[in-house]
Design brief:
Blueprint (H helix, E strand, L loop, with lengths): L2 H21 L29 H5 L14 H20 L3 H23 L4 H13 L13 H26 L6 H14 L3 H23 L11 H21 L1
Helix pairs in contact: 1-3, 1-4, 3-4, 4-5, 4-9, 5-6, 5-7, 6-7, 7-8, 7-9, 8-9
Bound molecules: zinc ion (ZN).
The site of zinc ion (ZN) has 8 residues, from loops.
Amino acid sequence: MDIALVIILGALWGSFANVCIFRLPKEKGVVSGRSYCPKCKKKIVWYDNIPIISFFLLGGKCRKCKKSISIQYVIVEAINIVSFITIYYFFGVSVITVLLMMLSISFLIIFFIDFEHFIIPNVLTFPMMIVGFLKSFDPNLPSLFPNYINSLIGGLFGYGVIWSIIYFYKQLRKKEGMGLGDAKLLAVVGFWFGWISIPFVLFLSSVLALLWVAPDLIKKSKKLTSQIPFGPYIILASILFFVSKQKLMLML
Ligand SMILES: [Zn+2]
């Protein structure tokens, strides 16, 4: 497969990710309905809707209302292109590549939705749990992914550990610290990467989240009890887990 094709696929799926990030929190149909400007609600013609390129041709402004278009659209598309190229570089044309591309798009969408809206949609976590579990029955993917027993334990462990944190936090503080969306996301991680990933991802995501809020805590603009989205840290930690596991396997 040509690298140009990977880039085009990355851009197109990246632009689909943008639609999901914009519409899923508003419960609007993702597939139905043409793209429109969120500011003036006018439809966007196809030549103004080319991933990345149109943004720069239009100077970052809507052709009709001249209001600025969020740079986030370009960032999401660029990240997706880079992740597609990276996956293709390491795994070529394979089932693993397709699986990892699916997971990376889902992670990308969840990352941005949770970051802005503090929600993790079930329409993303449920299918990814199922795919993560089903893929563990494929005998051709042994070393990279866990077998189905490990996958199942991983999923239950991931869900259970955050469910317990929520439960005990509620008993102690009479309020919720994390959401069940986080539990479902960690279940996805467990189904995909096995039970061993859970303590690693849980620990690393907590460290990352603390590092991120530390400056605000010091400035006292936030309290330790302030709500922060936890999903993005779970995602970053999972990527680090996967990459470091690959590295270790190459060394052995
Ligand atoms: Zn507009």
